[in-house]
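Summary for the steering committee. One of the milestones for this cycle was to obtain a three-dimensional model of the protein with zinc ion bound, which we needed before selecting residues for the alanine scan. The sequence and ligand used are listed below.
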Amino acid sequence: MAGRSQKGLNMAWLSESIGHDSRAVNSRNGVICWPALPPGGHGNGGWPWVQGLPPVLYNSSREGEVLSIIFVFLDGVGLGPPGEGNPFSDGGMPALSRLLGGPLVSGREVDEPGLLLRPLDACLGVPGLPQSASGQVALFTGVNAAGLLGRHLPAYPNRPLIELIEERCILKSAGEMQLRATFANAYTPFYFEWVAKGLIRHSATTLCVLAAGLPFRSLDDLERGEAVFWDITHQQLATRYRRPVNVPLIEPEVAGKRLARLGGIHDLVLFESFLPDLFGHRPDPSGVGRTLEILDRFLISLLAAVEDETTVLVTSDHGNLEDLTVRTHTRNPVPLLVVGPEAEAFRHVDAITGVTPAILSALEP
Ligand SMILES: [Zn+2]
């Protein structure tokens, strides 16, 4: 289909920037077959990094089930006007900017087969600054949570929003559709201890996992490469918590490939990173620069590593990092970036409430 062909064209340059290790994502369990050419592929010469490689393994149980979506939720990324206070506008994400034909700022829109970038409203008709709990519940349930409460709710969902998640969050709905869904994030053992002691509360994504009855990924999964930590590189994991955590640091590209691999064995993979929100509230220049570099390398390696049938969707709950002149969230729209064969299915989504319904509709058998 046309979308696949365009994705191949768009992605061809990625191999140059990330190297040949991308072929690792084509390893699946099961029957031996040859690596796939790029979608629609003979015309542009095939994936440069798989030409001449030996056969890889293919899981025959997935034959006939071609579609998967990896949903990357980045907390606190808006589309703001270019300028000095917007770190996205001055070359902060070079690889992504190259894919999009320019930086991730307001006014940038792409609508090509296999590649979509459009702004989404995150304010949802409610005055004030959009916040995490209501924004994330809107994102993961399709319901205007802020409208329901009459205000934007920060941090953790309250009882009405927890009930909404328990009733209709994306992971639960996917399970009811017999889809294999997973949350890619790894949890520390002390996270659950702290919740039990009442020191912290569950965020929207964790409540989604609980509502769906899915298992949590652990640090053991992380060490085996079968999970991704919210900070992507384990830097925050190693330094942020009062308990020592002995997990090696990894490059963003490694995390991108690990997430891509989960997309190969699930229908829906959700991943959350709140790095951008963290540094939007605490905008030290080196932390902001490093955050954009990590996100750029992570996302581009993910896009290069996913299989032809996988669509990657990236979006946010509210703006923050795109305006370093303030330490608060913003009322800017958030980006909806969709790369892959299902990109067209998201062309008419115009608010964060439209994301989950469009994902579930795209995944409908
Ligand atoms: Zn925040």
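Key point for the committee: The first strand starts at residue 31 and ends at 33.
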